[in-house]
Amino acid sequence: MPETPELRQIIGDLVVAAHRLARLAAQVTGSTESPATWRTLSVLQSSGPMRLGELASQSRVSQPTMTKLVRNLVDAEWVKRIADADDARAWQIAVTPKGVEALQTWRDELSAALVPMFSDLSEAEVAAMRTTVEIIGSRVDLSAAASAALAGSR
């Protein structure tokens, strides 16, 4: 399907709805962790270890903010610093098993908090949601792979 005004509108609406749903879930769970914490752990889990500047960019925060965030995450033992194989003077940040567990626990809390809102969906509606998640996941994975390929060719 070529780009159409309808497709553009649906994608925009989907992004807004996803953000609203994430904010609502965070409020319902009463989580005191910054959304940047979960975003950072998620980036590291899906993309692997990376330098601080790249992590800041991926997590959409400034480098000084990421420095503080990483310090807190190291203290919590959710991330660790590892030597950069390409530059002995540099460090990369990697998620730890404890960080992966914390991220999964948070995701479980989010979904548990939202299940009551969706418990009356029909099987067809649940199937439509599953299909939507699969479509979005595959497009995001393709985009990440393309970005990585472009970065590697520079």
From TrEMBL:
All copies of domain HTH marR-type, residue ranges: 4-138
InterPro entries, sorted: HTH-type_Bedaq_tolerance, HTH_MarR-typ, WH-like_DNA-bd_sf, WH_DNA-bd_sf
Domain of life according to the entry: Bacteria
Gene3D superfamilies: Winged helix-like DNA-binding domain superfamily/Winged helix DNA-binding domain
Protein name: MarR family transcriptional regulator
One Pfam assignment: MarR
